[in-house]
């Protein structure tokens, strides 16, 4: 790893924008993770106390059965819905760039290189995608009547009628001490109206496949090293909470994916953040507020 030297003066003046979250879970079980990640930080004001840190901490959905699905999946007797289209993208397979073959022999899954994708092509969309059993729109002209009330970020986005606020939303998925991040790109498994589970505190109402409540892509499966039918914990996270990783390497809307120089800059920024956090962890916060 390239060593980044940061002037001591810079480290003394920057107030940490991120707090280190702690995950405590039994590596052999699905113990509930305890993670707190802030969405932003307070500005440093030497003449007065720092403003409170604004946080959005979405609740964990614990021990949720997940199943694997993929872009281009053909309909079967057990899964009659094809995945060439999604609930929000009528050209999903074409926009992705091809068939997201789930066969391990047809995929790259390399933690050292940070590569999790099909071998046959470079995807044009994020290969780390999921489906949840809710669709916030009825059609391109209107949202479901409960959408504005139950979706936590709906009012912040102020969407036009019929514009989804769910597509592209980030999730953190956790199992056996490892977190993966993925984007919400389709609706399922099986149902599309289960807001009480997705945004509330009820279990999934889908009775199929062990009451499955989350569909994950082959890339998510490979990164976490899990099988369809196993259980995970998941929660929503804001985009600013998502660290750099293989889930940010590909995607038409991600400028990092199309710019190697920008990707290098982002890796350096992650290093600077780690150095900054280590430096400030040595000193009490009150020192920066006086």
Task: Describe the fold and architecture.
By secondary structure, the chain is α+β, with helices and mostly antiparallel strands. It has two domains: 1-57 and 263-290, no CATH class; 58-258, no CATH class. The chain has helices at 8-13, 92-96, 147-150, 154-157, 195-198, 218-224, 260-280, 286-289, and strands spanning 61-68, 107-110, 115-118, 129-132, 137-139, 142-143, 170-175, 178-187, 214-216, 231-237. The strands form three sheets. The chain has a six-stranded mixed beta barrel with strand order 1-9-4-8-7-10. A two-stranded antiparallel sheet has the order 2-3. A two-stranded antiparallel ribbon has the order 5-6. A hairpin with a 4-residue loop joins strand 2 (107-110) and strand 3. The longest helix is centred in the last third of the chain and has 21 residues, at 260-280.
Number of strands: 10
Q: Overall 3D geometry?
A: globular
SSE order: HEHEEEEEHHEEHEHEHH
Q: Which sheet architecture does the biggest sheet show? A: 6 strands, mixed, barrel
Supply the number of structural domains: 2
Taking pLDDT < 50 over at least 5 consecutive residues as the criterion, the unreliable ranges are 8-30, 35-54, 254-260
**Could you give the distance between the termini?**
37 Å
Helix content: 10-25%
> If strands are numbered along the chain, what order do they take across the biggest sheet?
1-9-4-8-7-10
Taking all residues together, what is the mean pLDDT?
80
Radius of gyration computed on alpha carbons? 20 Å
Alpha plus pi helix count: 8
Kindly name the structural category.
alpha+beta
Beta-strand content estimate? 15-25%
């Amino acid at each position: 790893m390239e060593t980044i030297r940061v002037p001591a003066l810079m480290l003394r003046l920057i107030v940490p924008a991120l707090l280190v979250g702690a995950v405590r879970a039994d590596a052999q079980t699905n113990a509930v993770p305890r993670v707190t990640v802030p969405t932003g930080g307070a500005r440093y004001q030497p003449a007065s106390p720092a403003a409170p840190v604004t946080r959005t901490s979405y609740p964990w959905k614990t021990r949720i059965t997940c199943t694997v699905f993929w872009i281009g999946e053909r309909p079967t007797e057990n899964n009659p819905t094809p995945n060439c289209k999604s609930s929000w993208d009528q050209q999903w397979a074409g926009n992705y760039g091809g068939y997201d073959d789930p066969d391990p022999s047809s995929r790259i899954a390399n933690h050292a290189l940070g590569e999790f994708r099909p071998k046959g092509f470079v995807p044009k969309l994020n290969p780390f995608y999921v489906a949840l059993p809710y669709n916030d729109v009825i059609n391109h002209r209107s949202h479901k009547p409960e959408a504005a009330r139950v979706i936590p970020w709906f009012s912040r986005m102020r969407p036009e009628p019929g514009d989804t606020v769910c597509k592209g939303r980030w999730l953190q998925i956790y199992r056996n001490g490892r977190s993966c991040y993925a984007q919400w790109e389709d609706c399922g498994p099986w149902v599309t109206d289960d807001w009480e589970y997705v945004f509330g505190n009820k279990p999934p109402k889908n009775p199929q496949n062990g009451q499955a409540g989350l569909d994950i892509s082959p890339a998510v499966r490979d990164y976490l090293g899990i099988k369809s039918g196993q259980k995970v914990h998941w929660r929503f996270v804001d985009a600013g909470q998502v660290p750099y990783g293989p889930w940010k390497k590909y995607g038409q809307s991600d400028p990092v994916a199309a710019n190697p120089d920008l990707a290098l800059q982002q890796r350096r920024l992650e290093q600077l953040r780690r150095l900054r956090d280590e430096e400030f962890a040595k000193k009490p916060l009150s020192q920066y507020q006086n």
